[in-house]
Design brief:
Largest sheet: 2 strands, parallel
Number of domains: 1
Strand content: 15-25%
Radius of gyration: 13 Å
Strand order of the largest sheet: 1-2
Number of helices: 4
Order of helices and strands: HEHHEHEE
Oligomer: single chain
Structural class: alpha+beta
Distance between the termini: 8 Å
Helix content: 25-40%
Length: 82
């Protein structure tokens, strides 16, 4: 588990399974994202858009893009941030 993106996507799967009309826009480095996406159902995977790494000055464009929730997933293990 790195950065908690896997946990975010796990919850997206639950929303999709319950037929909630939700999607995710991911901004940042790719890291393990391809592996996480491969583990999703096709229906859930279709709800994920990846914008790639963006310079800090462009981030407000994404924060203010009309989404209902902004998340900065992070995971902690053994008292240390991953």
């Amino acid at each position: 588990m790195k950065g908690g993106v896997d946990l975010l996507l796990k919850h997206l799967i639950a929303f999709v399974a319950e037929n909630f009309n939700r999607s995710a826009l991911l901004v940042g480095r790719e890291a393990e994202l391809p592996q996480f996406l491969q583990d999703l159902s096709v229906k859930a995977r279709d709800r994920v858009r990846y914008a790639g790494f963006q310079p800090p000055e462009r981030l407000p464009e994404y924060f203010c893009s009309g989404g209902r929730l902004w998340s900065c997933p992070a995971a902690m293990t053994g008292g240390a941030w991953l």
